[in-house]
Amino acid sequence: YEAASFQIRKSFSRGLQFAANYTYSKNLDVVDNLSNAGLGGAPTSNPTRFDSRKGPAGFDVPQLLVISAVWAIPGRTGNRLVDAVLANWNVSGISNFRSGLPFMTFLTTDNENIGTVSGRSTEFPSLVGNPNNPQRSVTQWFNTAAFAVPARYTIGNAGRNILRTDTLISTDCSISKVWPLHEKTSMELRGEFFNVFNHANFGYPGTQIATAQFATISSTLNPGRQTQLAIRIHF
Description:
7-stranded antiparallel beta sheet, 3% helix
């Protein structure tokens, strides 16, 4: 794992706090771990050739940008009735911009005649063209013509994690208002909004060659916009 990280931060003052963090990294390994949504484990078709299994880790995220901010909106007037409407508002938010996650393609049969484990894909197809689709869509996320079934009893050369999912873009925010009730008691009304812009982040496409779902996406990496309201008493 190699990375460079950069950070800009403004400590809380005058009602405002701000932070931006950017990481550029590369993570290589020979076996997937906590990755690929169950799309397969480490290929075992050629256990003596570690170079054939080396590739981006399933959780490799080359670029990650996180921006967050908290703003205590000024608006205190000194008038109790006016401040009940204008004062003690807070807005906060966090945005994530992340590279897509790696994944790989598999054969559906034991083409190499090495034995298989039910429910686990381990054998690669052969790469015969450019797998990247310049005009990606949910019905063809990558170039299916770039993959072919190898000759019987031979090992495919497609390799681990040569493709990536959609980028992840998500923004969460909250708005709150506090009403002081007594010296040590206050009431807070809070609204929280997850994926507030309802950005669709596409999930993994089908990865098994020669199936109806091959290169087709049928899920998203995160849910759609969600909203929740809460009332909290501080004492």
